[in-house]
């Protein structure tokens, strides 16, 4: 029996990156989730681009989990017939991860958005002051973090 493209990809990822993958599964038709260890995302995304021609990044989702921030890289082939989610975590007290804009240039705005709203630093990505937030937004204030509280004088707190 011939494997589907998604099943073949999951098998390849488990085989080539066994030491970097926490979990890889087909969650339903045309949807693959892969959880990877910290720092493994670049090698895996590069592999997927080269082997499976995945060149489209839909977005990057950032989620405050309390002690960690989870990053979900939503990827799709150009025909967008299925979706692949690469999940990884960074510690909230040191939220740094390597950029992927040299692999998938379309990630440039998504990395800037996650930086603005959650404070994740994408190493190798030189970012201007703000992307989503106003220019006068205070340093170190990240409005999508669960522990963030609006303060007097913070631009959005005036609304």
TrEMBL record:
InterPro entries noted in UniProt: NADH_quin_OxRdtase_su_C/D-like, NADH_UbQ_OxRdtase_30kDa_su
SUPFAM superfamilies hit by this protein: Nqo5-like
One Pfam family linked to the record: Complex1_30kDa
Gene3D superfamilies linked: NADH:ubiquinone oxidoreductase, 30kDa subunit
Domain of life: Archaea
Family indicated by similarity: Belongs to the complex I 30 kDa subunit family.
Protein name, as recorded: NADH:ubiquinone oxidoreductase 30kDa subunit domain-containing protein
Protein species of origin: Thermoproteota archaeon
């Amino acid at each position: 029996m011939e494997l589907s493209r998604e099943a073949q990809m999951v098998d390849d990822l488990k085989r080539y990156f066994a030491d970097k993958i926490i979990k890889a599964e087909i969650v339903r038709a045309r949807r693959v989730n892969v959880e990877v260890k910290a720092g493994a995302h670049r090698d895996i995304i590069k592999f997927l681009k080269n082997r499976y021609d995945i060149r489209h990044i839909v977005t990057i989702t950032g989620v405050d989990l309390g002690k960690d921030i989870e990053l979900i890289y939503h990827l799709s082939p150009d025909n967008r017939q299925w979706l692949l989610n690469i999940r990884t975590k960074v510690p909230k007290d040191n939220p740094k991860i390597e950029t992927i804009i040299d692999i998938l240039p379309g990630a440039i705005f998504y990395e800037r958005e996650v930086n603005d709203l959650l404070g994740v630093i994408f190493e190798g990505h030189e970012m201007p002051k703000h992307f989503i937030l106003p220019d006068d937004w205070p340093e170190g204030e990240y409005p999508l973090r669960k522990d963030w509280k609006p303060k007097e004088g913070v631009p959005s707190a005036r609304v």
